[in-house]
Amino acid sequence: MTVLFVGASHATAPLPLIERLAFGGGDTVETLARITPGDVRPTLPLRELVLLSTCHRVELYAVSDEDATRPSAALDAMAGVLASRNHGVEAFDAHVRRLVGSEATRHLFRVAAGLESMVLGESEVLGQVASALTLALRIGAAGPVLTPLFEAAVKTGRRARAETAIGSAAASVSSIAAELAEELSEELRGRRVLFLGGGKIALLAAKALRARGFWEMTIGAPMDADASALADEFGATAIQSDAIPMAIAESDLVFTCAGAPVPVDAVTVRRAMRGRMARPLAFIDLSAGDVLDAEVAELAGVRVVCPSELRERIDIAMAGRRREAPLVEAIVEQELRALQSRGEATSLSGVVAALRARAEEIRQRELSRALASLPDADGAVRTQMEWLSVSLVNKLLDEPTRRLRAEATQSMGNPYADVTRELFGLGVERADRPNA
């Protein structure tokens, strides 16, 4: 069966559009249920469906319930699922990719391996690919084609990270910031951190920071979903704007993020430094300079990590990851060939079984017809004719089936399955396998 893909990502669409297209948990379940039998008749012309929705991509992988040689209706239906979420805000088709067969399969493997991520080699996407399959299996939307396909993609992603260094160095703003915070902690004398501003980057930085050890967290930001998640998940203490100067004075490290309720100027920080008994204070500026006054970096006892320093460290890490990319590309191609070989072996084995079944059907029909024309034949004659028909079929099929089975063990692609079906008119469907 042919794998179909429709999706948009940071590489094809602006992030505001990706955010509009994104699926929450309930939306994903509802969409997957549109292809499964239930109280409502399936409303999408798809046999299988897995939906992958992350911060930077929204992708549908599917198998059509129609003839694999005519995938256009299924692709249109998949695109329609995404278009319905755009609400006509902007041109849509120009930002959506449609892939069929081996191109769709290769894209999934590259996604799982981190080659298609905004941050090359990032690790979160591998878990997201695995979770997408788990949910589709629970709903009953993934079947004999997409299940092994996604399992092979996850294996590819694990190999990429185990056998290469593509994900070894921190390379995102949040992870670099957490790495710097851990380095600074040795001279800060404490592990109290204040987040000024929220958003995704603050939440990701908090996660990366907590993964490196315990930090006592405080947040001063409008309580949107991300800020609430930070407070709930990490036990961060939420404060009002008027409490921010005191919170700065009591903290060891301050993250300034977009959306901070008040700017941080040199006067505020100078006041905060009084009474700290020369205890150093560090700022990591994630706001591109919109929140933190440049003069703060000139104050005694204050260390400021500016956006340009973060960018420099990211560039160094990314250069190392790019050097690893060809090794990951090779792993992707190896796993694609392995998946194709498994599919061909399954297909050829099915052809052998179908060929034998067809021959047996013909043998029994023709034997019955011959015996019907010999009503006086005794048991010995009937047994001899039975033996003769079996022997003829076995001898005729011995060489073809032996060669087909031999081909099923080879790693290289071959056309024997389709040719045999065509020559012998085998009325069987192609084996359920990804078209890779």
Question: Can you give a write-up of this model?
Answer:
- Helix 8 runs parallel beside helix 9 (225-234), helix 10 crosses helix 11 and helix 12 runs antiparallel to helix 13 (379-408).
- This protein has 3 domains: 3-163, 2-Layer Sandwich (Beta Polymerase, domain 2), CATH 3.30.460; 173-314, 3-Layer(aba) Sandwich (Rossmann fold), CATH 3.40.50; 343-424.
- The chain has helices spanning 15-21, 25-32, 72-86, 102-112, 124-139, 146-163, 173-188, 199-211, 225-234, 244-250, 266-273, 307-372, 379-408, 416-424; strands at residues 3-9, 46-53, 57-64, 97-100, 192-196, 216-220, 237-238, 253-256, 281-285, 302-305.
- The relative contact order is 0.10.
- The strands form 2 sheets. The protein has a 6-stranded parallel beta sheet with strand order 7-6-5-8-9-10, sandwiched between helices. The protein has a 4-stranded antiparallel beta sheet with strand order 2-3-1-4, sandwiched between helices.
- It contains 14 helices and 10 strands.
